[in-house]
């Protein structure tokens, strides 16, 4: 079905009402679409940081390069943590749709734990690099590295805070429509962070040495 | 128990990530997790092995990453190319277009500037 057909063909149960007379979209759809646009703009911000990293990756100024700094085993564990937290976040959104508070808390707690584990591993890596004299001020390569990976880590940190606030809202306000919409936005945010991480581990960690 | 809300209205629009029950539910997430694990392990294997011809490794890594991003979009975001996802899909296409412009445009321009820049030693000599 083409785009034009999709826009002009009436949907089942809603026969022969032209598109222009069907009124505004449901609020869940408007909120979801608006947040989707925000996420895409966030990805554009990351693309600028990726471009900066790609340009500066071989400018080590005589300092350590990625091949000597990065520990692929650690990165694989970090990747696993974030992927599983994205998966359990999806199971949490199913629990939300079923309005099951117990299942929502359970999957949200696991999502939070894996996200926090990811953040802890990343911070320990940053601290180790700093103690080896490979801090963000050492070279243009390391400035770009800490900006890109640090911005992603900051997003994960804010996501964890958001998740904690949402669980408090489920506990106090219950599954009222506004809370459910916020939860939908949170799950989208969390999945988007995992997509950005695919770019990070491929370009920064596995791509080290190909600059 | 209240009815699961369908995040789809009379205009036939679907919110990203909305209406899990009509989009495969747990099975979609399990499938997405399975594909993502396979693609992630393949990426790490390709980067560490000598079985693959060296110059092909970056291209293979890029293909695996793009494939995994597609898996996440389809199985976690539930974005499809169907008629009720037209708006989401067009926004995604525009986002990919801008990302491509920013990344490849920056790399092209910076490589060109770098190639045209006067060598540092020569630049220092001409100052005297």
Sum this structure up briefly.
Chain A is mainly alpha-helical and 211 residues long. Chain A has helices at 3-8, 27-56, 66-69, 72-97, 101-131, 140-173, 177-206.
Describe it for me?
- The complex is a heterodimer of chains A (211) and B (128).
- Chain A has 211 residues and is mostly helical.
- Chain A has helices at residues 3-8, 27-56, 66-69, 72-97, 101-131, 140-173, 177-206.
- Chain A contains 7 helices and no strands.
- Chain A is globular.
- The termini of chain A are far apart.
- Chain B is flat, with a radius of gyration of 23 Å.
- With 128 residues, chain B is mostly helical.
- Chain B contains 4 helices and no strands.
- Chains A and B meet through α1, α2, α4 and α7 of A and α1, α2 and α3 of B.
Write the SSE topology.
The complex is a heterodimer of chains A (211) and B (128).
Chain A: H1 3-8, H2 27-56, H3 66-69, H4 72-97, H5 101-131, H6 140-173, H7 177-206
Helix pairs in contact in A: 2-6, 2-7, 4-5, 4-7, 5-6, 6-7
Chain B: H1 25-48, H2 57-75, H3 86-116, H4 120-126
Annotation keywords:
heterodimer, A: 211 residues, mainly alpha, Four Helix Bundle (Hemerythrin (Met), subunit A), 0% strand, B: 128 residues, 4 helices, flat, disordered N terminus
**Terminus-to-terminus distance of chain B:** 84 Å
- Number of continuous helical runs of chain B: 4
Shape of chain A: globular
Oligomeric state: heterodimer
Mean pLDDT of chain A: 90
How many individual β-strands of chain A? 0
Query: Roughly how many Å is the radius of gyration of chain B?
Result: 23 Å
Low-confidence stretches of chain A: none
C-alpha-based Rg of chain A, rounded = 21 Å
Overall average residue pLDDT of chain B: 84
| Structure class of chain B | mainly alpha
Low-confidence stretches of chain B: 1-8
> What is the helix fraction of residues of chain A, given as a range?
over 70%
| Global morphology of chain B | flat
Largest interface: A-B, 63 and 64 residues
Judged by helices, strands and strand pairing, the structural class of chain A is mainly alpha
């Amino acid at each position: 079905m083409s785009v034009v057909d999709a826009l002009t063909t009436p949907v089942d149960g809603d026969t022969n009402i032209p598109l222009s007379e069907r009124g505004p979209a449901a609020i869940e759809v408007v909120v979801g679409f608006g947040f989707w646009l925000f996420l895409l703009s966030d990805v554009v911000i990351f693309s600028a940081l990726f471009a900066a990293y790609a340009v500066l990756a071989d400018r080590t100024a005589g300092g350590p390069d990625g091949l000597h700094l990065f520990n692929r085993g650690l990165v694989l564990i970090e990747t696993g943590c974030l992927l599983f937290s994205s998966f359990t976040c999806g199971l949490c959104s199913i629990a939300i749709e079923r309005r099951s508070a117990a299942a929502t808390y359970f999957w949200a707690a696991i999502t939070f734990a894996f996200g926090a584990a990811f953040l802890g591993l990343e911070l320990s890596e940053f601290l180790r690099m700093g103690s080896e004299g490979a801090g963000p001020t050492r070279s243009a390569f390391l400035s770009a590295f800490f900006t890109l990976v640090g911005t992603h880590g900051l997003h994960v940190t804010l996501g964890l805070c958001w998740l904690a606030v949402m669980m408090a809202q489920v506990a106090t306000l219950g599954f009222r429509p506004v809370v459910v919409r916020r939860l939908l936005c949170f799950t989208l945010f969390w999945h988007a962070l995992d997509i950005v991480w695919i770019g990070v581990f491929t370009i920064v960690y596995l791509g080290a040495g190909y600059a | 128990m209240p009815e699961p809300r369908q995040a789809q209205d009379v205009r036939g629009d679907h919110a990203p990530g909305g209406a899990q029950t009509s989009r495969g539910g747990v099975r979609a997430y399990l499938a997405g997790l399975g594909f993502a694990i396979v693609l992630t392990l393949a990426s790490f294997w390709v980067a560490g092995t000598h079985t693959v011809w060296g110059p092909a490794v970056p291209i293979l890594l890029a293909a695996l990453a793009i494939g995994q991003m597609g898996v996440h979009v389809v199985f976690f975001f539930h974005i499809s190319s169907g008629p009720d996802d037209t708006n989401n899909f067009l926004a995604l296409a525009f986002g990919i277009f801008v990302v491509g412009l920013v990344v490849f445009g920056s790399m092209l321009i910076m490589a060109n500037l770098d190639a045209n820049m006067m060598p540092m030693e020569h630049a220092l000599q001409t100052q005297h």
